[in-house]
Amino acid sequence: xxxxxxxxxxxxxxxxxxxxxxxxxxxxxxxxxxxxxxxxxxxxxxxxxxxxxxxxxxxxxxxxxxxxxxxxxxxxxxxxxxxxxxxxxxxxxxxxxxxxxxxxxxxxxxxxxxxxxxxxxxxxxxxxxxxxxxxxxxxxxxxxxxxxxxxxxxxxxxxxxxxxxxxxxxxxxxxxxxxxxxxxxxxxxxxxxxxxxxxxxxxxxxxxxxxxxxxxxxx
Amino acid sequence: xxxxxxxxxxxxxxxxxxxxxxxxxxxxxxxxxxxxxxxxxxxxxxxxxxxxxxxxxxxxxxxxxxxxxxxxxxxxxxxxxxxxxxxxxxxxxxxxxxxxxxxxxxxxxxxxxxxxxxxxxxxxxxxxxxxxxxxxxxxxxxxxxxxxxxxxxxxxxxxxxxxxxxxxxxxxxxxxxxxxxxxxxxxxxxxxxxxxxxxxxxxxxxxxxxxxxxxxxxxxxxxxxxxxxxxxxxxxxxxxxxxxxxxxxxxxxxxxxxxxxxxxxxxxxxxxxxxxxxxxxxxxxxxxxxxxxxxxxxxxxxxxxxxxxxxxxxxxxxxxxxxxxxxxxxxxxxxxxxxxxxxxxxxxxxxxxxxxxxxxxxxxxxxxxxxxxxxxxxxxxxxxxxxxxxxxxxxxxxxxxxxxxxxxxxxxxxxxxxxxxxxxxxxxxxxxxxxxxxxxxxxxxxxxxxxxxxxxxxxxxxxxxxxxxxxxxxxxxxxxxxxxxxxxxxxxxxxxxxxxxxxxxxxxxxxxxxxxxxxxxxxxxxxxxxxxxxxxxxxxxxxxxxxxxxxxxxxxxxxxxxxxxxxxxxxxxxxxxxxxxxxxxxxxxxxxxxxxxxxxxxxxxxxxxxxxxxxxxxxxxxxxxxxxxxxxxxxxxxxxxxxxxxxxxxxxxxxxxxxxxxxxxxxxxxxxxxxxxxxxxxxxxxxxxxxxxxxxxxxxxxxxxxxxxxxxxxxxxxxxxxxxxxxxxxxxxxxxxxxxxxxxxxxxxxxxxxxxxxxxxxxxxxxxxxxxxxxxxxxxxxxxxxxxxxxxxxxxxxxxxxxxxxxxxxxxxxxxxxxxxxxxxxxxxxxxxxxxxxxxxxxxxxxxxxxxxxxxxxxxxxxxxxxxxxxxxxxxxxxxxxxxxxxxxxxxxxxxxxxxxxxxxxxxxxxxxxxxxxxxxxxxxxxxxxxxxxxxxxxxxxxxxxxxxxxxxxxxxxxxxxxxxxxx
Lengths: 219, 968
Description:
heterodimer, A: mainly alpha, 0% strand, globular, B: mainly alpha, 8-stranded mixed beta sheet, two-stranded antiparallel sheet, 37 helices, 59% helix, elongated
């Protein structure tokens, strides 16, 4: 059963990673003037859009999220609206944190918000897909010894990798190299993206090698 | 020998300070200076020596040249002109060098081969060191005696086009100038066109005497693509064309009878094989020097070129000065190039050399204590006497062959004397005293290693360090090592050609240092064996004295990684320039990590209230649920709000002062507040901050101190109003400003009063009654005295920094450090980080220029050195000092929880400070020929050393607290 879950996870991650790849390559082929550095914001939105669409589709198809007892349309709609609200709040949260880290408040608000949007679509969206709009379970997953399934562990790893990637991505900003990727927020968003991809690879591998040690309490 | 870890840490820090001082003495050699502001005058010139009668004329011989054009090409390497490719690169120049009336030399530049020091060297003739930069930190303008100043004073009209470093160094010296910045390295055409565009019109005019051109393009090409790039040739051809143009223009104006012109082509430094410069490699220091003038004899043999003679770059200065009939600038260490004077009469030639020799001997007298023993000085005396005899015969009308031969002999004597004096002087300068540097470095490193090795013991529950001093002192290796080091010392000191500071120390001191160093080494080795040989059965956590297994929380990982990462980041010049970013970044991450800890504590506890024994943090005392319910509730939310509040504070405060280099030009709140339209806002803000400071600080003070504090803070506001930063509501804007001396002294009285009360309380608690309460009150009073002092010294717009500092300290101590049971080590590291960040929040940077010197005048009528320096140091390091002081207060109030907290804190502080200091010393030594060594690394070195000194002082303060604890 575990092997099956890990395999499912690996294939899901492969699909998401390839969607990121496609979202980078396809516009570069078809849209004139598109490049990761030159039109960075459009790259961010294209990648985020692809990740959102693919994640939602894949996780919905897999049916990982906690089974809902009610199947009424109203309940589903309220879940959807709450998810959207959480998504937006999370964007604001990331934006605030990035501003607290020293991003200019007014000057490049669009760039900062794009970074926040990217981070949200890489982290919060996965939480929404896997855990649903349920803050209690989010807190449970992100506290120590809180993981209750393989997917929880996977979530922990990818989110941590993405955030750490964005964090590390801020290091080269003060260097005086005058490179195109030092422009705000390119290094951070690239760092986040690299961290996310690393997390996608690392999560199944890590779980595979630690599957003996991983013991989960029953749900 | 068993020592308490706080005593041990302070001892180590003090020794490290000594080690760093030795290192600094080697790194910054004292420069040759007669005095900074005095200039040599024409009237000071020595009389022409004449035996027998009274000296005759004191005038200079006639100038040799009327007009001079100096064409300085940045990074022009010697082989670009004289090398095998010179014929292709600069055909016209090469033609002139080989066949025309010119003299060519290879001029050796001294490291640092960077433009600014080189311009200084070319104009003053001295070899500038970093200390010069520190000495005239107030103004970037050149205050030293220099050629440009002399020329301007003599009424010469100077025109300058080129690098704007010149314009900054010599403001108001040029009749006409156009400075180009070397900001965009990628631009190598525009910078030069900006210089050349003036050339045609200027060359046609007659209203100038000196024209200086400084071309930057070649240097930029070197930086982009190196000396073998395809861009080099067109650039050099362009330079060659310009030289040709100038030469032809000068030639056409040159008329028979009048004084000839002089055209100088030189480089300020060369470039290495990679195209950079700054170091001391052969291609970097070799520059061409071509002097073209019709006064020189046309070369007779057109048979290729002979190898040009090697001169020092600084030799150009006295040569130009004499050629112009100007006095040689006082600190010039070069000697005149004799080939240039070949065409003058023997009497004039002797006179020139005599003037040069006199200037050098004066400088020698000022620099070297036993100058009379110097060979050059004696030679000069002899030559001067012979010159006098020659003059006597010459004036008597003797024109025989004997006289000419005698004159030539005098000339030779002079030249030898000049060369000897010049080399003796320049040996004193521009060289790193490697022996002292290495000695200091070894010293610091041994201490650091000992400190690191004692880590587990020092942070254990006893906080006692066991040093095997006695066994080390009686061991054989100790004596052998002593002998070895002493012999090395003798060997180095007798063989070194340059003077070492360490060698000039007295024997007693040196022997003490040698004995100390070898004892340290023996202790180190024996501790190392003790640590390694008995295999550790269980490794104790370095940070968690209570923990049984070696386990680090996320916070510990962050604290360790941050400390190490910051130390590593010092290797990069941009990270040093933008060091504040590192600290802000780390601090933000720290706050988020703390936030996560708080969340975990409160939310997990709530969830698992009766469920299971959840291991949250290494807490060992009662649950907060023992308290009444509503209090717990408010406390929980306050604790949860503290980290976000801290984050917001940090964000606000960091936008007050924009520091660093890259983003320093951006507008910040400080400028906005200081502009005169916003004076009311600033006044309100300052008043609000002062009130807030009062309420934050007064809680723990005695009644007397409270009153004193209130009056003191009122005094601060009136001082700011008197100086004109803020205004009282009833004050009219047109009121005359004063220096605010009375108000400031009024505040000083209260500061001293509060400090005195605090000390009195401390002493009483120590001697008469062992009262912990009285003691903690005394400590807090000292702390509030410091706060009052800093609120006086801080500029009005910086008061929010102080305010935020106090707010964060209060909230963090109340809700975070105490509640989450962080141990002494963690608390110390957090305090240290906060202190570092607040150092930069105040507007400091790693650049000397941001030190606020005006603080030294607060409450003083005129400049008095000692108080000014102390006040400046205190206000510059206000952030770290305040946080360390708070750490002492906090840890001693936490004594009931952990009796050795202060020992641990002191030890951690010492470790935190000595790791970056020691690492930085090594980095600076390795990077001593780096391009930015003088502009970036050296100022940072001074900051680091100063911080180390202050930390040593604070550790002593820790010690006294610890002392009294153990007594009580």
